[in-house]
Amino acid sequence: MTPHLARTATDRARTVQRAPQRRRAAEAIAFVGVWMAAGYLLHTSSNAYLLLGIPLTAAFQLLVRRRPLPELFAPARSAFRWDGKALATAAALAILPAAHAVGALQRRDWVAAGWYLAAAIGAFCAAFALRTGTVLGAVRSAAVPVAIGATGMALVYSVVHLAAGVPVSATAVVTTVVTYTALYFPATFLLEEVSFRGAIDPHVHEDARGRDWRSAIFVSVLWGLWHLPVAHGLPLPLQVLELVGVHVLLGVPLSFAWRRTRNLAGPALAHAVIDAVRNAFMLGL
138 is in which domain, residue-wise? Predict the structure, then answer.
């Protein structure tokens, strides 16, 4: 084969390989676009916006990706059964969100109740992921995203506290971090993290490409833009820059954490801790 023909064949092969990836990227954009459009049209609160993602993510996984739902949380080949340890893990993770759900139902705050119930149900998905992997593995997987995200949140909000002259209570910070981590960790198995790392990331990323920074950035940009329907306070161009910048910084390590194990426990734990640290350092502001 002549060099020219060889190049032509190679280019053809690359075109064939790129076309499915472009299609998957377009499908991911459409998925997020539908979700955002629903948020704008329905004028939802942030909690209601998150809840919209449950049926949308399930539909994307089953109808677009054509993959089983358990793959959102752990590899399909994972051996798992609901033994005593799995049930105990799920029950322990569900206690706090279930208690909050009862309180929200008593107040007739249906959206909050739905969020807490999703977190309680997510506890069973979390138990599945933890039992198909290990707690130590989840902690190791979460270490880098937590180091980047939680440290960044603490530094930024510490500066805000200093500028505002508002003291930070160490006890309140620790209590808030523990409480919100316990709430957010199971919640992320049905809300947000499951959509962007569990569903979208494996749809656009090919394992043969290794770390693949471009696809990780792509997923993170989508994640940042996804916040727009419930983000307020800045002019739109600045809002877009802030959301994309922050979520690329946080999202790329989360994508890499997911890709190392295909187990959502690590990214979910990291996401929960980062948001909990943010909440803790926003106290009094």
Answer: 22-79+126-281
